[in-house]
Amino acid sequence: MYSIDRYSYLWTTEKEDWVLADPLDYSIVNRKRHSLLLIEDDTLEKMLIERMLKEGNRVFDDINEAFEDV
């Protein structure tokens, strides 16, 4: 059983910073710090992406577009 609660900052307190890039193969990126959140567990990553989409986190066509929109 997975708990995504420890990552809730992605769609709550830091929602404006954490976005999704590349709709074909989503990456979770911090557009202000120019960093990528690496999740090694594919199931957990999928759950986080689905939650971010549900919560309305912004989606960019690519990572460069996300970094430029600060």
Anisotropy-based shape: globular
What is the terminal-to-terminal distance? 36 Å
Strand content: 15-25%
**H/E element order:** EEEHEH
Report the radius of gyration as a whole number of Å: 11 Å
The count of DSSP E runs of length 2 or more, i.e. the number of strands, is: 4
Low-pLDDT stretches are none
Strand order of the largest sheet: 3-2-1-4
Structural class: alpha+beta
Number of helices: 2
Helix content: 25-40%
Rounded mean pLDDT is 95
Largest sheet: 4 strands, mixed
What does this protein structure show overall?
With 70 residues, the chain is α+β, with helices and mostly antiparallel strands. It has helices at 42-55, 63-68, and strands spanning 18-21, 27-30, 35-36, 59-60. It has a 4-stranded mixed β-sheet with strand order 3-2-1-4. A hairpin with a 5-residue loop joins strand 1 and strand 2. The longest helix has 14 residues, at 42-55. It is globular, with a radius of gyration of 11 Å.
Please give a quick description of this structure:
By secondary structure, the protein is an alpha+beta fold. 29% of the residues lie in helices and 17% in strands.
Which terms summarize this structure?
70 residues; alpha+beta; 4-stranded mixed beta sheet; 29% helix
Secondary structure layout:
Elements: E1 18-21, E2 27-30, E3 35-36, H1 42-55, E4 59-60, H2 63-68
Parallel strand pairs: 1-4
Antiparallel strand pairs: 1-2, 2-3
